[in-house]
Amino acid sequence: MGEAIKAINLTKAFGKFVAVDHINFEVKEGEIFGFLGPNGAGKSTTIKMLTTVLKPTEGTAIVNGYDIIKEPAKVRNSIGVVPQEFTADEDLTGWENVMLMAGLYGIKKDVAKERAKELLDMVELTQAMNIKVQTYSGGMRRRLEITMSLISRPKILFLDELTLGLDAQTRSAIWNYIMKLKKEYGMTIFVTTHYLEEADLYADRIAIIDHGKILSIGSPKELKESIGGDVVTLSTSNDDEAMKLLQNLDGIIDIKKVDNMLRIKVKDGEEMAPQILERLIKSGVKVLKMSITEPTMDEVYMEYTGRKMRNEESDSKEVFAMRRTLRRARG
Amino acid sequence: MAEEIQNREEVDRSPFHGLWTLSNRELKKWYKAPVIFLLSIIQPIFWIALFGKAMNLQTLFSGTALSIPGLNIPKDIIDQIGQEILKQTFGTTDYFSYLAAGMLSFITLFTSMQSGMSMIWDRRLGVLDRLLTTTVSRSNIIISKVLSSVIRSLVQATIVLVVAILLGMSFYPGINIFDFLGAYTALFLISFGLSSLFLVIAIRASSWESQMAVMNLLNLPLLFTSNAFYPINSMPSWLKPIAEINPLTYSNAVIRGMLLGIQTNLTIDFIYIAVFAIVLSIVGIILSWKYISS
């Protein structure tokens, strides 16, 4: 398996502000690669460079074997992009929008019709394809955008904030369509997202980006392990004594007392729990409650970016609402 | 390899692919929205019917309106003097036809000016970014907008022409199809140039407010520094050189020469507007390569 995308010192500066700062990463052929980070981290700028919309200030990237600076036309021929915004024309029907995209790629009419039918069928839009887009729901619009970007049979699909502003149910439905399409056409998928659970659930590998730099890269499992494994939470008859006893036990990374509970960070929870119990019981400390939790992507994210995700979400909802208003204003 | 060969059969990758698709997209927004379409058709009718008929200098010079106390000048002499003044000034005694010909360039100017707006909307709504990721060439994005704007302008101009004829516009005797072709060529060129000009202005803009301000700033000066309403000869000396570089002056001259038979140097006129159209569209294409994205 080769590399679908390879970023080499990819950099974009707007004046003095460096949006993307010498990033390097590789996306393997056929994988789903998640780009995770807060607003303004440089996710969209990276996608725009990889899709030849923006020119890098420094460095370059190889997409499907072609240099984004030297061979942009060949890159464009290999990719499909589902942008953050809804770009389908409101006044046209879903079908007309898909055929319009086909026209932009110069796909012959009869070929385009066949592909459009197949794709619309796969995302279950056949019923609505002859209705104007302005009557579509958010989920339907996203499905249409996906169809539009797949009409050229791209090798690599870029999804910028795929599920932004959609409710949880629609989000998982959209992801189901994506997985189905990926199974059928086997493309590489590069996705930026705000939603940690989505990245965790669907991405093969994730890069966490903030302030234009990649902070960490790996599979969801690797990332979770990288921040220090599991957490064993204990409630004992004598917490202070227990803390002292456990301090020098091998495999324990950190012990904290939080809300009358001991939070013990360990490398491997399942292995450490019996050892912890044994030592405490031997020394006469009674264990009242015990639980083992694996780290969530939330914790991973917080560890690397120093922020919680929740605030970001509401930000993006505002952006989304603004866009809708803008669209309506145009009429 | 096999895949690539198959690809070639399914896909047309001439340099112009997508051009008509994009132009048609712009035009659909116009003719598929009945209200916008109707309003844009009514607008030129208002201009020609209200302005054209109200500002009819012809009535000033018809003898019946003139009677100087104490002087008993025969009406036909006054008429003749009036006719002569009109002829000297405008090259024809039929001021309504003179004005109607100017209106054709005028409506073309107003329609072409809007070309930049769709660029700004596409940028703001993210449509432009999506277009930039497709295989359509950057210059086709610009040319499609120019082309759709030109088509709109010519349709609008045709409506003005038909309404003007209904209201009494008359052509020189012996007019033929080539005169109309010539007039439309002039309109095509002027619209091509003007649409390119306003697209160039909009190429980096993201605010439609500033584009509107530029449009409002330029529309009336462009109109009044041309010979749309009155000939260059009757302009003050400081205005003449401005009128002489205004491309609308030349398209007006061509249309009047072709349709009304008013004397003009067609060769120079045509060369001037052709150069105007070619230079601005080339500038537009070059800038689109450089600046459509940063």
Describe the structure.
The complex is a heterodimer of chains A (331) and B (294). Chain A is built from twelve helices and 14 strands. With 331 residues, chain A is α/β, with parallel strands linked by helices. Chain A folds into two domains: 3-224, Rossmann fold (3-Layer(aba) Sandwich); 228-294, ACT domain (Alpha-Beta Plaits, 2-Layer Sandwich), CATH 3.30.70. In chain A, β4 (58-63) and β5 form a beta hairpin. In chain A, α3 packs across α4 (109-122). Chain A is elongated, with a radius of gyration of 24 Å. Chain B has 294 residues and is mainly α. Chain B folds into two domains: 18-54 and 92-291, no CATH class; 55-90, no CATH class. Chain B has helices at 2-10, 19-31, 34-54, 75-90, 95-113, 115-124, 127-133, 138-166, 177-202, 208-224, 240-245, 247-260, 266-291. Chain B is elongated, with a radius of gyration of 23 Å. Classes of the chains: A alpha/beta (331), B mainly alpha (294).
Give the key terms:
heterodimer; A: 331 residues; alpha/beta; Alpha-Beta Plaits; six-stranded mixed sheet; B: 294 residues; mainly alpha; 2 domains; 0% strand; elongated; disordered N terminus
User: What structural class results from the helix and strand content of chain B?
Assistant: mainly alpha
| Oligomeric status | heterodimer
* CATH fold node name of the largest domain in chain A: Rossmann fold
Mean pLDDT of chain B: 85
Q: Output the radius of gyration of chain A.
A: 24 Å
Name the overall outline of chain A: elongated
> What is the distance, rounded to the nearest whole angstrom, between the alpha carbons of the first and last residues of chain A?
48 Å
